[in-house]
Design the sequence.
């Protein structure tokens, strides 16, 4: 038999996607599974794209991205998060996932190690495996899913013999919704800077924070931050596949090479849509965020009322809820029973590494009717 890359054999398809595909076969199931806003892309963005299509804008764009889009993107995030980027600090990618993959390919070599707090968004790990890079997990369960400077320092001390080049930092965090204040971020920055470690700061949910303003790691550690951004969550543009990397110019120059040979360039019409979003859609996320916050508050109250343990999320549109211990089931068993018996689908915590076992993730990017149904279903199955 002709061989394929052994590294590909060793990775699995996304546990989130696998479970979503399984529950999709159940007739009448209500899905609160994927990280998909339940809003459509704002009309002005679609109109701008239609105009561009009618004008025949169907050819290649510049590899690093449309120059006007790069400039406008820098200005957009500078304005929102007190950053100091120029067009030359921006790379336009095919979604945030490509941004992460390109960053890993640029700063790591096979045999290197990357720090990663867990539980975590699972897509990081296969990207690392394909690069021959190994994760060093930092278990955050004892600190209510918050990574601390002390935990990073302890982990570095226990792994002095390893080539640790990066730290993947996702906040607000998928699946827990945890975010960080300036003091926490500054303490984390000090440890990373002292040890010469890049931080790949995945802040894709930055515009969906609720009780405190989002502070970007790039505002504190610009020389060491690879800032991962995108419009999928803020502007309900998941299907357009547009992401951004913002970083120091020498790194963007290096990343452009990896990006160019992987994808050539992001789709031209998607870049048109992105330009409209970051120029004329600066407030598009506000109304969505406010609706998500109302849903979050209501769902947290109702789930606690019926006996579920959870930490109120600072951002995202997820709740990470503990499976009732009295049921004595795994997260997969709980979620399968919920889907079959109650026709409601959520994601098992084990999809977010073994450190998420004992929990499940509920997306509240869903209608009020769906959220009412999930509360009733969880009440039925939890008693």
Sequence:
């Amino acid at each position: 038999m002709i061989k394929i890359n052994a590294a590909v054999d060793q990775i699995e398809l996304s546990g989130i996607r696998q479970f979503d595909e399984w529950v999709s076969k159940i007739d009448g199931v209500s899905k609160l599974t994927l990280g998909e806003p339940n809003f459509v892309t704002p009309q002005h963005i679609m109109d701008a794209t239609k105009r561009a299509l009618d004008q025949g804008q169907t050819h290649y764009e510049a590899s690093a991205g449309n120059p006007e889009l790069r400039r406008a993107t820098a200005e957009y995030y500078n304005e929102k998060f007190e950053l100091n980027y120029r067009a030359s600090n921006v790379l336009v990618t095919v979604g945030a996932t490509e941004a992460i993959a390109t960053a890993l390919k640029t700063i790591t070599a096979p045999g290197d190690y990357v720090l990663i707090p867990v539980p975590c968004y699972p897509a990081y790990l296969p990207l690392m495996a394909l690069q021959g890079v190994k994760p060093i997990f930092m278990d955050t369960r004892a600190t209510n899913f918050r990574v601390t400077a002390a935990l990073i320092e302890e982990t570095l001390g226990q792994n002095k013999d390893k080539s640790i080049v990066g730290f993947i930092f996702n906040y607000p965090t998928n699946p827990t919704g945890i975010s960080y204040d300036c003091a926490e971020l500054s303490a984390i920055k000090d440890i990373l800077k002292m040890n010469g470690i890049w931080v790949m700061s995945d802040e894709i949910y930055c515009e969906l924070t609720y009780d405190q303003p989002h502070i970007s790691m790039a505002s504190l550690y610009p020389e060491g931050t690879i800032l991962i951004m995108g419009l999928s969550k803020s502007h309900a543009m998941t299907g357009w596949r547009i992401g951004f990397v913002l970083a120091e110019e020498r790194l963007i120059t290096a990343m452009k090479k990896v990006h160019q040979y992987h994808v050539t360039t992001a789709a031209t019409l998607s870049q048109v849509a992105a330009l409209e979003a970051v120029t004329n859609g600066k407030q598009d996320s506000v109304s969505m965020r406010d609706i998500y916050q109302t849903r979050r508050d209501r769902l947290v109250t109702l789930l606690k009322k019926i006996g579920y343990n959870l930490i109120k999320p600072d951002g995202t549109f997820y709740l990470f809820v503990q499976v009732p211990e009295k049921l004595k089931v795994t997260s997969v068993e709980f979620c399968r029973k919920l889907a079959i018996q109650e026709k409601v689908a959520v994601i098992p915590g084990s999809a977010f590494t073994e450190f998420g076992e004992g929990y499940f993730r509920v997306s509240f990017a869903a209608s009020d009717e769906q959220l009412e149904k999930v509360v009733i279903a969880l009440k039925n199955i939890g008693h």
